[in-house]
Amino acid sequence: MTAVLSPPAVEVPAPDRRYNRQRRLAWIGKHSIAIALGIMFVTPVVYLVLLSLMTSDQALTADYWPNSWHPENYVRVFEVTPLPHYLLNTVIYAVSSTVLVLLSSVPAAYALAKLKFRGRNGLFLLVICVMMLPPQVVTVPLYLMWARYGLTGSLAPLIIPALFGDAFCIFLLRQFLLTIPSEYLDAARVDGCGEWRTLLRVVLPMARPGIAAAGLFQFFYCWNDYYGPLLYTSENESSWTLSLGLASFHSVHHVDWNLVTAATVLAMAPLIIIFFFAQRAFVQGITLTGFKG
Q1: 68, 112, 210, 215: most buried, per Cβ within 10 A?
Q2: How far is the CA of 293 from the CAs of 27, 142, 176, 202, in angstroms?
Q3: Distance of alpha carbon 152 from alpha carbon 144, whole angstroms
Q4: Are residues 153 and 48 part of one domain?
Q5: Are 56 and 190 within one domain?
């Protein structure tokens, strides 16, 4: 019986350190611009967090690193300002406006993208014109209208207009819906689906990335909005949002920069967390948004 000889063991050479080092250097060189931009954008945020952990005296100096750490600054913020109330008003404003804008903008974008009717291009041009119109142009008549109905001093003038859609969201969703092949919609119509059922059953599942992107844009805009709350709620502190509350907090505690930066970090944290979990849908919705006419 012939013995089966096993092949001789082949010695695997140790990884070449020089080769790995060259690969790392090549990767750094290839992404050098992205790394530089990342550092440029992250550095102010890191410094803001470090400043919020300093003492009030050290915050006024040119130090970049805390001599002693004071996380209790974040607790003091809640003691000297009604931050939870501002946060609640901001959440009500941002969530309500986002939901209403999506409910009103998606059908409008669907009609402009997939329905053929006379004047469609003119309506789309009107949407673009409204998108480029500065909000300050219509400030006086809108304020007089809301004051006539007694709604100033509340969040209603900020939320109710979302029922009529947003020009930028309509534009963004319309451009995304143009990338959806019309054959899917024709097949649904052949099966007996009406336009509303086609929109709900066919278009919405395929348009989730675009809807997510438009929703995030609207949510971030409302969260950071300062002009609207200043115009309509400045007379009633119980309706202030985070942006307006932070501005008032800065004017009162302008010497305590550690508390001001701590409040700013607390206001930024929800946006960073939301974008961290939704960045995939956000990026996909932006990159898949075509520019078909």
Answers
A1: 210
A2: 38, 33, 11, 22
A3: 9
A4: no
A5: no
